[in-house]
Amino acid sequence: MKQEIIIAGFGGQGVLSMGKILAYSGLMEDKEVSWMPSYGPEQRGGTANVTVILSDERISSPVLNEYDVVIVLNQPSMDKFESKVKPGGILIYDSYGIHHPSERKDINIYKIDAMDAATEMQNSKAFNMIVLGGLLKLDPIVQYDNVIKGLKKSLPERHHKLIPMNELAIKKGMEIITKVN
How far is CA 159 from CA 78, 86, 152, in A? Predict the structure, then answer.
């Protein structure tokens, strides 16, 4: 088993955190893991993406041209990474940030209304965990319990009180993701 994933959006959307949680979760399952962030000089508001590879075997290179799963959270990321989904792969997008959704017929496209759900939960910081929940529903590449452990590992201890809210957000994402084509 090997999953090659890229998550892309604006800085401040939790893109890098989502990747880090996936990577920690994979480590807890004794998988080979690669976590490679990429972001511009703008900390918040600039573009950011992270490549995560989870594998049962050694990973030869963290640099990829195509991905099994592409998660895009804004239109510039859709424009850049839509074409990099492998045929038969998965594209997930948040409907709030996308004005021109993909029309590819050779991939599985899913929409998640994560921004709306985060607003409903009255917690914009839950956005990335809602998206992560959607991914885990479609592709349970890591066990849910290990995702929670990954959250504990990646969040500073002073934020551990937020873990129950993050769990609710993950479950919400699992409920609201829908297939587009």
Answer: 31, 37, 9
d(C-alpha 24, C-alpha 151), whole Å: 8
Q: Please, what is the Cα angle at 9 between 158 and 93, to 5 degrees?
A: 110
Cα–Cα dist 40/68, whole Å: 24
Residue 140 CA from chain centroid, whole number: 12
Distance CA 92, CA 178 (A): 9
Q: What would the pLDDT profile of 75-100 be if each residue is shown by its tens digit?
A: 999 999 999 999 999 999 998 879 89
pLDDT at 43: 53
Q: Classify each residue of 41-58 as buried b or exposed e, where b means 16 or more C-beta atoms within 10 Å of its C-beta.
A: eeeeeebbbbbbbbbeee
Q: Is the dihedral of CA 75, 114, 130, 42 positive or negative?
A: positive
